[in-house]
Amino acid sequence: MDELEEPDRVSLRPRDVEFDWSALPMHWIPGDPYTTHLLNVLHLLLPEGERWFVRLFTQALPMIRDERLAEEVRGFIGQEAVHAESHQGVLDHFTAHGLDPEPYVGQVRWLFRHALGERDFTGRRNPERRREERLIEQVAGVAAIEHFTAVLGDMILNSPGLDAAGADPTMLDLLRWHGAEEVEHRAVAFDLYMHLDGRYWRRAKLMLVVAPGMLALWIKGVRFLMANDPTGRRRPRLTDPLRATRRYGLPGPGRLLRSFLPYLRRDYHPSQHGSTSQAVAYLASSPAAKAADERGGR
Ligand SMILES: [Fe+2]
Ligand SMILES: [Fe+2]
Question: What is the pLDDT of residue 159?
Fold first, then answer.
């Protein structure tokens, strides 16, 4: 990937992908329920999280005073909307095969729709200003989350160990198509925050909230999925993450935890990490993205 030239900027567009889950085995990484469910947590978290991004960024659009950024935000909204629905398809498949995700997803839904949802400031002083400030704070939160989705996107694009282990190719394509679009649009939320506010302390503060929050949700999600696996109740073991690192070459817990540190640098920009050219190359070869283009795209 080093030989590929990095494009300055790509125009972001949603790809109207479709996936057929009818042949998906419950343990789509053969013989490895832990790593299967470690990655399945994405399906539990992303649909509600990405619908929240879409609502927030749609509200933020009228505040943007830069047409190029507004165009990127519109592309981001289109991509995240398709991501949410694609992962929802996996959840529907799980439900049909005896793994009801609703007890966990219901909590995630409450988090994004109520705890982090809209507030009514009617009757308070400067309601419009308060609404904008809350929105900017939320955009800073999305920028922090998008740092991790870009890290995870880069990880899944560089995970040949999963193919070697016989992981389900349709699932790998979903994760890599999504991961590639995360890498492709990794700067949009950050650039939007810098445009609307940009204060360092605010984005650093939100990262310090988001990083432990995501870790806690992830651990809870893996435990939930393993405890509710229709093939038998299981508990994750302490050695499982290290085994996944060794077996598939995935980054270990230490590397993932450290991955939030660059975000705290004052001169951080998402373009410093990950490869747009690799993402674009994957999207040109992804079976789902190619089929979407053949159907006429959107
Ligand atoms: Fe996404
Ligand atoms: Fe994203």
Answer: 94
